[in-house]
Specification:
The chain is mainly α and about 300 residues long. The protein has helices at about 1-20, 25-30, 35-40, 50-95, 95-100, 110-135, 145-165, 170-175, 180-185, 195-225, 230-250, 270-275, 280-300; strands at about 250-255, 265. A two-stranded antiparallel ribbon has the order 1-2.
């Protein structure tokens, strides 16, 4: 029974990991598994058997939901990325108040401003530089050493967002333009055995990057959040807001191609897209509202101490 309960919790966490805007770390915290998972991962070499008792059912449940949902989300993004990504943007913005709650003492809020601005500007700068250098959506990776280390690095960076509750690793991949290439094409197509070799070439370094990242950053990020909570969460909020811009830039016109990777970004002619797709605007705004409501009302909120 314990195995099945842990597997079910892993299934729920997997849903959070795959949906941009929903933090797997926050959901794990809500389910009472966050500290246990970090401890099990950190102690995997010391207490191998005990760690596996927790990690196997949780990761198995997460894998089932991630694989199933990745395929579905890929299909929906191909059909109408405006509605789907507006839902994700709503999920992200609705979670910001929970992050603001972490800056508990009002008198110290000024300490968060500089880290917030720097984080926001750095991410937006990198984002636009990336779009200028690579204006088209990314499809498959090339089979090369460079791609192997790039995917490993993406897993490494995504792992940091998994350690910090309130930050979405999928949103990061979406912002960087790699969500479709990794989540939809590889994870969602894991049972396409004609691409088995390619899928393993991507999944192995990505999984290694996540594992190494969690092990290496767990203690460091814990200390940063403990010693400098206001500054740390200021930087996190800057990153989260910048990710909204990145995701919006990934919205594409479904009439311009069959798949998201070949479709034209709506920012190229936003007015024309809205004129031609008024119902997409209506359903997109509705999806945004639903996403905002879900994370704003259902994420656990911290109580600020009285001063």
């Amino acid at each position: 029974m314990t195995f099945l309960i842990l597997m079910l919790k892993g299934f729920i966490i997997g849903i959070a990991f795959i949906v941009p805007g929903v933090s797997g770390g926050t959901v794990a915290l809500y389910l009472g598994l966050y500290d246990k998972l970090l401890k099990a991962i950190g102690d995997i070499f010391k207490n191998f058997k005990e760690s596996l008792k927790l990690l196997v059912p949780v990761f198995l449940g997460a894998a089932i939901s991630v694989i199933g949902l990745a395929w579905l989300l890929g299909l929906l993004i191909d059909k109408n990325s405006f509605v789907v990504l507006m839902l994700f943007i709503g999920l992200i913005i609705g979670g910001i108040p929970a992050l603001l709650d972490q800056i508990a003492v009002k008198e110290k809020i000024k300490s968060a401003i500089i880290p917030f601005v720097l984080s926001f500007l750095i991410v937006v700068g990198l984002l636009f530089a990336d779009k200028l250098l690579s204006p088209t959506a990314r499809g498959d990776f090339s089979i090369s050493a460079g791609s192997f280390f790039l995917v490993f690095a993406l897993g490494l960076v995504a792992s940091v967002t998994m350690v910090i509750p309130g930050v979405s690793g999928s949103a990061l991949l979406m912002m960087l333009g790699y969500y479709t290439a990794i989540v939809t094409n590889v994870v969602g197509g894991i049972f396409d055995f004609s691409r088995f070799g390619y899928n393993m070439f991507i999944l192995i370094p990505f999984a290694l990057g996540i594992a190494v990242g969690i092990i290496l950053t767990r203690k460091f990020l814990g200390k940063m959040l403990s010693l400098h909570p206001v500054e740390s969460y200021g930087a996190i909020i800057g990153f989260v807001l910048a990710s909204v811009i990145g995701i919006f830039l990934e919205i594409r016109d479904p009439a311009s191609g069959l798949t998201h990777s070949v479709q034209t970004p709506i920012v190229d002619d936003f007015g024309g897209f809205i004129q031609a797709n008024p119902w997409s605007l209506v359903f997109g705004l509705l999806a945004f509202g639903i996403g905002f409501f879900v994370t704003y009302w259902f994420l656990p909120r911290s109580q600020k101490p009285k001063t």
